[in-house]
Amino acid sequence: MFWLRPETAIWRYLDIEAMKGFEFEGRSLDFGCGDGVFSFIRAGGRFSAGFDAFQKTEKLDRFYQNVDVYDSYDESYDPLVASSPSYQISVGFDHKANLLRKAAALNFYKETIEGDGNAPLPFDSNSFGSIFSNIVYWLDNPAEVMSELGRILVPGGKICLMLPNETLPQFSFYNSLYAKTKDEQWKWLELLDRGRLSDNIKQSKSDDAWREIFRSAGLSVSHHSQHLPKVVIQAWDIGFRPMFPALMSMVASVDPQKLPSIKAEWVDALRMFANPLTAIGQKNDGSSAFHCYVLTK
Ligand SMILES: C[S@@+](CC[C@H](N)C(=O)[O-])C[C@H]1O[C@@H](n2cnc3c(N)ncnc32)[C@H](O)[C@@H]1O
């Protein structure tokens, strides 16, 4: 799925491993589902080799100006599902209509709902048995979001969250070499960061700080682990990101008949690096960059 961005594949694999013990029960919500591909794969769904995460993109010429190139959809989008997941999710929620259209094409969500996660959520109190989210840290006020997620969860229900640890910004090249030092020789790292740190990772917190937010929202922690150590974050921070638009135009010019064998060769080569890195990335270490929590109400 992510052959042109292997760093994304490694991150997603480690997220799926981290949330192994979590099961969706009752009415379920994927809060910030995006194109749905992550949750679909996590649920055991599989795609044919002819499909990848890059099938529908646009504005690649503005990639370095921090545009979301995946926010694109038309009727030609066809996710080539090879096998269906072992369960469905009741509701996929996101604020980007194009991503929700991609998610709906998977036939994995019973319903997709467009809305703003920064606003009061358009759901009744006590209306979900289980919630997954890896976007709470992209939002303006995590404490308010947690209180909303707590409100819509049934008593005894479960929430699984991926949240950044305070070490995440320290591991970023952009943050440690430029944002903190203001040393102009590293200004070009803005092109690598693409707004991720300035916009999205602002909510990195220690385990204690996250627990305080959960307590205030009436939620208790039933599971906590940490994953994504420094070396994996550093590999991800660069990855194939610098060359992504150029790789996309090169792939677009390849004979479609030859593409599957080229893709297979890439994936075989990438495994030599991805397999040992993912083995390192699974270590549950207090300094790792992400927390995985399961919360109950
Ligand atoms: C890192 S992506 C994760 C998407 C998906 N869960 C996945 O793992 O692929 C973050 C998602 O959060 C969504 N998002 C960001 N801000 C939002 C907001 N204010 N309300 C709803 N969704 C939002 C984005 O549209 C995007 O799909």
Automatic annotation (TrEMBL):
Database matches in Pfam families: Methyltransf_23
Entry superkingdom: Bacteria
SUPFAM superfamilies per UniProt: S-adenosyl-L-methionine-dependent methyltransferases
InterPro entries (UniProt xref): SAM-dependent_MTases_sf
Protein name: Methyltransferase protein
Source organism per UniProt: Rhizobium etli (strain ATCC 51251 / DSM 11541 / JCM 21823 / NBRC 15573 / CFN 42)
